[in-house]
Amino acid sequence: xxxxxxxxxxxxxxxxxxxxxxxxxxxxxxxxxxxxxxxxxxxxxxxxxxxxxxxxxxxxxxxxxxxxxxxxxxxxxxxxxxxxxxxxxxxxxxxxxxxxxxxxxxxxxxxxxxxxxxxxxxxxxxxxxxxxxxxxxxxxxxxxxxxxxxxxxxxxxxxxxxxxxxxxxxxxxxxxxxxxxxxxxxxxxxxxxxxxxxxxxxxxxxxxxxxxxxxxxxxxxxxxxxxxxxxxxxxxxxxxxxxxxxxxxxxxxxxxxxxxxxxxxxxxxxxxxxxxxxxxxxxxxxxxxxxxxxxxxxxxxxxxxxxxxxxxxxxxxxxxxxxxxxxxxxxxxxxxxxxxxxxxxxxxxxxxxxxxxxxxxxxxxxxxxxxxxxxxxxxxxxxxxxxxxxxxxxxxxxxxxxxx
Length: 404
Prior knowledge:
Residues 291-377 are annotated as: Disordered. The chain is α+β, with helices and mostly antiparallel strands. 32% of the residues lie in helices and 15% in strands.
């Protein structure tokens, strides 16, 4: 992208960060290559879009999330140096990475041999392990947010930065929490992101490293999200067989299981966090080096987490919304509580319901004498049937039918 036409190029933010060139533009912000005039070093500056900077709530969230990401200090995490605001536009100053994204590596080399894929993926898992240990959830793990330096080191970027803007690549759920192709099914339906959500997205990345393809595709984001919710991700070895391509390396059963354990649709049956994911990846890499890629059913069984205690996979469905109540029959919430009794009186004996008497069809009570017209619900309940008493009936120790 030509940086000549960008108005920020050449400007200095807060008399310290000189914007040199535009690097990339996303749905939420633009990343620039900049020079720290105070420390004489090259940095990356991520500046929020000008239209989003006018939203005080979003700007506060941008600042808050930048602070939470700054607590991370790990070789596989892009470091956060500073944050601020210039002319109403919040910005984050980060470590500048000389290299390329994992997306380019996948496009150029995938399908990768298992040992090469695991070499890269272990560093992603290490970054997630450090983040989850610090209480930070990434929310948007994908190849575009994984950098590979010129020295071959993996760096995960954009920790904790929520997405809240409409974009063809993003989910449109009001609060955007991830890219559709890597979106955990529970985020589509009813849950908030946690460590298991990052594990699912990372498992999709590993699938793509091994096969060169995304597990679910569709004509739009809604179709992709629907498949994540309703269709299990297949084994990478099965996808390679479907592609009809022959490779010089096999995918052992325990590597297939690692992908399945990370991408189970039910989060309760998924690898729980980055720490457990890293431990599983290291077991797989050790076995790959020892067993030359041969199957190991025992290791595969140990990687797969136990199913939920009830033995039934949780059915993910949208959160139910209460139907709007009409004006004639408002929704009533009844809370059962012990009836209050004076301290100097014994509890009253429950009053049996009145006997039903035939109603003369030719006689209709006047509105002023109709029990239904004058009924006012109270906290007392009849103990012998599921009816409620009115305030007037409770005062006279008589039960009525008007709240049935």
